[in-house]
Amino acid sequence: xxxxxxxxxxxxxxxxxxxxxxxxxxxxxxxxxxxxxxxxxxxxxxxxxxxxxxxxxxxxxxxxxxxxxxxxxxxxxxxxxxxxxxxxxxxxxxxxxxxxxxxxxxxxxxxxxxxxxxxxxxxxxxxxxxxxxxxxxxxxxxxxxxxxxxxxxxxxxxxxxxxxxxxxxxxxxxxxxxxxxxxxxxxxxxxxxxxxxxxxxxxxxxxxxxxxxxxxxxxxxxxxxxxxxxxxxxxxxxxxxxxxxxx
Length: 247
Hints:
Number of strands: 0
Largest sheet: none
């Protein structure tokens, strides 16, 4: 808690000394009052609920499809030859660069927001799955081939345990990117959500509302990341702990 408290004290000192005018840097007390007002009116809960619902759908679709796509790329040479060049090219394009095209195709309704979030979550998951499966020792596949292991058993009993660390790291990155892209998309075009609340505050010169949105977005992003770290540790509890070098 030391660094957030230092930032809060510095913020309070700058506003109390009027280093910047209130129109540029609003005080923590004003932000706290705006936060209380948004909670009492239910506006904050409504915007946050809309954002989290979009995140759930977009992240679920994007990470799920990315997992299947990366697995297909790693297991099928033909599939990899067909789609790897396109995959490598598209993943280099920033997610926000697709917003104008997606608006033309899907409009500004909920489908657009879910698609842009899914796109943000798709590529890190697909890439981590691809690298994770390709990193599995070839000897394991040879043993599975000798014992004529069917594909479902190969995936469930060999690939999943071997690739869990890499895949979970990619999914964690996907979750972070999905949340960042969601807030950015809502800032640009939305009628609800944390980003839209911040944009409306900017248009109405309510910097206290904007700061509430910034703080809430940061806290939610931090909570999502920490929660996934705990889930990641729980899902890998079967792995033996790393041992130090022998004396």
